[in-house]
């Protein structure tokens, strides 16, 4: 396995995309801000890192093709748009829309936690995205605050389909090394169960808990220490506690389904519209 060349700002990829600056670096590659010199627009270009791959993952080109095909077939405000797949010096690049704004992880880090109202808005947007993905047989497998972009136009966009799977093309899989980020992986996966819509919903629950409360629901949980008995403690979630708590059920049979989660979300919205309801006192101080 060879090491790919690390490009520099100003390099032109595939005769078209001029690299400007690095946006982010992850486990499978680097995302650049680039300028499309053919269409005259700014884009995000993701380079797949051969050396960083885990042995369970496909080769870089296959990985890029899979991510592009899965994310590219959705026409939703809540899913990042895919523009092109280019190969430059044997390295695949996935070109997608360049989003304004910041990640949910950045907002949580900056604010400490979000208001219940802000978290409710994000919850509704992500539930809508997951409903579309799951209806089409797609499991994202890496839902977390760092993969949720909050744009300047107030859109909530799910990013990084790098380890997403299409259950219509590939059967449910079990791996010795679970995909995703440890704190956001559902407990049944550690026991050998395959990823499923229920595991995405669990990851959504962890994400929303982080947004509402400012920290992980189960601190210290690790790959080698699957959760056995744990209940999240809510201080600020307000009317969202039923939704988030239901998504965080350790037993997938007890976990909220997507339809049940939407019903809980609607209840939370209704509660927050009542004077003095669904909003924590500290949220009111924050807004004043």
Automatic annotation (TrEMBL):
Protein kinase domain residues: 17-269
GO molecular function: ATP binding; protein kinase activity
Protein keywords: ATP-binding, Nucleotide-binding
Domain of life: Bacteria
Pfam families listed in its UniProt record: Pkinase
Protein family (similarity comment): Belongs to the protein kinase superfamily. STE Ser/Thr protein kinase family. STE20 subfamily.
Entry-linked PANTHER family: SERINE/THREONINE-PROTEIN KINASE SAMKA-RELATED-RELATED, SERINE_THREONINE-PROTEIN KINASE SAMKA-RELATED
Annotated protein name in UniProt: Protein kinase domain-containing protein
